[in-house]
Amino acid sequence: MQIKIIGKILRQWKKTSMSPGVISRSISMGMVVGFSPTVGLQALICFLITFICNRLWRQDTFDWIIALIGSLVVNPLTLVPTYTFYYWVGCHAIRCSNVMEVQDFKNIRYFLYALKEGTAAIFLGSVPFMIIGLALGYYIGKIIERLLETRIQRRKERMLKKKLSNKSSKTAYK
Question: What's the pLDDT at 139?
C-alpha cells in the first residue's frame, strides 16, 4: 500500500513542477484533516485549505491532490474504533455525563447526533492525533521528497553516462 501511495504522489509530482516542501506540507495538512472527525468533508476541506493558502501566501504552498492522499489515513475500516478512541480521550479532557461505546456504523449516528457533549468530546479527543499527524505527515513528506530527489539525480547520472558512452563509441569508430 505504501508503494501505491508513493506512486500516486509521484504521478502528481511529474504532472506539475513543485517547489521544495510542497509534498511534505501537503501530506502534513492532509493528515491533520484526515485525523479530524470530518468524514465526508475531507476532500472539500483539503481543497478549500489549499485554494485559500495558495491564494493568500504563494502559489505552491499546498497541492490538494497530495493533501487528499494524506487525508486518507483514517479509512472507513478504522472509523468506528478511531471515533471511539477520540471520544474516550475527549471525555478524559472534559467531563462526559454518560460514556458510550460505538460498536458499529448504525450506532455511530446515534452517537454523533444524540450527544452534544459527545461531539465536543470527539473533536477535542481528535486534537492530539491531529497534532501528531501534522508532525508525522511532514516527516513522511520529507522522506518522499528525498526519494524523489534521489531518483531525479540517479536518472540524470544515467543519462549523462549514456551520453558519454555514445560519444566515446562514436569517436572510436572514426
Answer: 92
